[in-house]
Design a protein that fits this description.
- By secondary structure, this protein is α+β, with helices and mostly antiparallel strands.
- Helices cover 48% and strands 17% of the residues.
- The protein has seven helices and five strands.
- A five-stranded antiparallel beta sheet has the order 3-2-1-4-5, with helices on one face.
- β1 and β2 form a beta hairpin.
- The protein is elongated and about 65 Å long.
- The two termini are 33 Å apart.
Length: 199
């Protein structure tokens, strides 16, 4: 995680959810200075059954949000809003508290009359696509285009595991210099109907 802002990031959570969302692990790093790089010790932890990990993770993230100024019920509601898509979706991601000055710049807010105190908490998420995952998605695209039924089903099943993150993975393939043109063409073909349907 690289803090590219001009402000300190108070907390960064590195979270890895294993295949099919059955296991997970996470690590937390605090106080990442402006321009600094942080590597939470994620690889030092073993993947564990996801329900056990999520229980601990939700409690820790709620504690982080309370430290940012939210009440306990506000922190709990905020976590529950995106717990399933952020905490149970297969993949590797960073979840971090956005510095307050940056929050105010992104989402300006003016209240009249001005309150005595105003607490604003914005949480950001960065999806990370490791090379191994990119290779798996590339293989899945080839399998899904196969004339052989079992191979095609295997490819479609792997792509389906990406859920709502399929499009970012396909765009990552298109932008990668390591991916062959044939695989990029398959990714482009998958993206075209998705783009058309969203308009």
């Amino acid at each position: 995680f690289v803090n590219g802002s001009a402000h300190q990031v108070d907390q960064v959570v590195a979270l890895e959810v294993g295949p099919e969302g059955k296991s997970a692990r996470y690590a937390i790093r605090c106080y990442v200075a402006a321009g600094a790089k942080a590597q939470p010790p994620l690889t030092e932890r073993e993947l564990a059954p996801i329900d056990t990990v999520i229980e601990s993770l939700e409690a820790d993230v709620q504690k982080i949000l309370r430290g940012q100024g939210l009440y306990a019920d506000e922190a709990r509601a905020m976590v529950r809003t995106w717990s399933r898509s952020w905490f149970r979706s297969e993949g590797l991601r960073f979840i971090y508290t956005v510095p307050r000055p940056l929050t105010d710049a992104i989402l300006p807010l003016a209240l009249t009359p001005a309150p005595d105190a105003l607490v604003r908490v914005l949480v950001g998420r960065l999806e990370v696509i490791p090379r191994q995952t990119r290779r798996e998605v590339e293989t899945a695209l080839r399998d899904a285009a196969s004339a052989e039924e079992a191979q095609r089903a295997r490819g479609e099943a792997r792509l389906a595991r990406l859920g709502r993150f399929l499009e970012p993975h396909l765009r990552d393939l298109l932008a990668s210099a390591e991916v062959e043109p044939a695989a990029k063409a398959l990714a482009e073909a998958r993206l075209t109907p998705a783009v058309g349907a969203s308009r």
